[in-house]
Amino acid sequence: MAGQHFDTPSIRDTPLLHFVMHHTALAGRPGAGPALALSLVLVAIVCVFTGLCYAELASMIPIAGSAYTYTYATLGELTAWVIGWDLILEYAFSNMSVSVGFAAHIVDLLATISTAPVGISASTSRPSWW
């Protein structure tokens, strides 16, 4: 509340820098109070308005509804081409991330049931000869 003393004398004791330096998390900024809950309510209101904006855009351009088609209809072919390749790269990187995680789970599963190929253990995702 108003008038409380903030007992953190240095910027190094803020939650983010404290986590980076000490690798332990603080519960939040001391003295934050209900501001965190109010900021979440504000973000929810912004998300509602963002959804309404996308709904209005979708009603004005009643075709497929992807980022590429919206960009093509509003900004032109060249910008839509850039957005299209950006989407392809985004999907490629997300698929690679998921496949690496899935492969690690499969390796751990095979190591658990003792049918893993020689040189693969549950703790590493590379063969020993790598």
Description:
The radius of gyration is 25 Å and the shape is flat. It has a domain at 76-130. The longest helix is centred in the last third of the chain and has 36 residues, at 77-112. It is 60% helix and 0% strand. The mean pLDDT is 77. With 130 residues, the protein is mainly alpha-helical. It has helices at residues 15-22, 35-60, 67-74, 77-112.
Instruction: State the total count of DSSP E strands.
Output: 0
Molecular shape: flat
Order of helices and strands: HHHH
The major sheet is characterized as: none
Radius of gyration: 25 Å
Taken as a percent bin, the fraction of beta residues is under 5%
Enumerate the spans where pLDDT stays under 50 for 5 or more consecutive residues: none
Mean pLDDT: 77
Estimate the helix proportion, in percent: 55-70%
**What is the terminal-to-terminal distance?**
59 Å
**What is the tally of helical segments?**
4
- Structural class of the secondary elements? mainly alpha
Task: Describe the SSE topology.
Elements: H1 15-22, H2 35-60, H3 67-74, H4 77-112
Helix pairs in contact: 3-4
Outline:
This protein has 130 residues and is mainly α. The protein has helices at 15-22, 35-60, 67-74, 77-112.
Jot down its keywords:
130 residues; mainly alpha; single chain
